[in-house]
From TrEMBL:
Coiled coil: none annotated. This is EamA-like transporter family protein. Keywords: Membrane, Transmembrane, Transmembrane helix. It comes from Pseudomonas alkylphenolica. Signal peptide: none annotated. The keyword Transmembrane applies.
Length: 159
């Protein structure tokens, strides 16, 4: 394993960190939408609609070429899981964030992401390179799962 601290190597890490920092705000805002609209699925629909409204101007500004829609017929079955996962995440976030708190929900999300990512890496699923599980990786994931329980244990359930 090689770690590089050159600015060019750090930029993707910083962008990923900032993207991750936005997720608790997404969970909180979706939870508020759920309360306002009276049902989690309406809030999910509104959230995804706002996403579409944000992507369209970005496509126009970046002058993204039109997609090759015929290629969709060649897509593997799992290529559609992103949309399914998005609905599942948004709905879970708006239902569970008020109950678990932002940190409680997000730490569970992170633990779940890391566990499933380890499986994807192990078998090179979804067209990604295979990166076998080893003791150090398992130890790191174990610490994350332990951290999830510590955060939940340390969260007061009384208001």
């Amino acid at each position: 394993m090689s770690l590089s601290f050159a600015p060019a190597a750090l930029l993707p890490l910083i962008i990923a960190l900032l993207a991750g920092a936005a997720v608790p705000f997404q969970a909180g805002s979706n939870a508020a939408l759920g309360r306002l609209l009276g049902h989690p699925l309406w809030a999910t629909l509104v959230s995804l609609g706002v996403s579409v409204l944000m992507v369209i101007p970005a496509l126009l500004v970046l002058r993204a070429p039109l997609p090759q829609l015929g290629a969709l017929a060649q897509a593997p079955w799992w290529a559609w899981l992103g949309g399914v996962a998005g609905v599942a995440y948004i709905t879970a976030a708006l239902m569970l964030t008020p109950r678990l708190g932002a940190a409680g929900f997000i730490v569970c999300v992170i633990a779940g992401q890391v566990l499933s990512s380890l499986l994807i890496d192990q078998w090179g699923l979804m067209g990604l390179a295979q990166r076998p599980v080893n003791g150090l990786r398992l130890a790191g994931v174990g610490l994350i799962v332990l951290g999830m329980f510590v955060v939940q244990w340390g969260t007061s359930t009384t208001r």
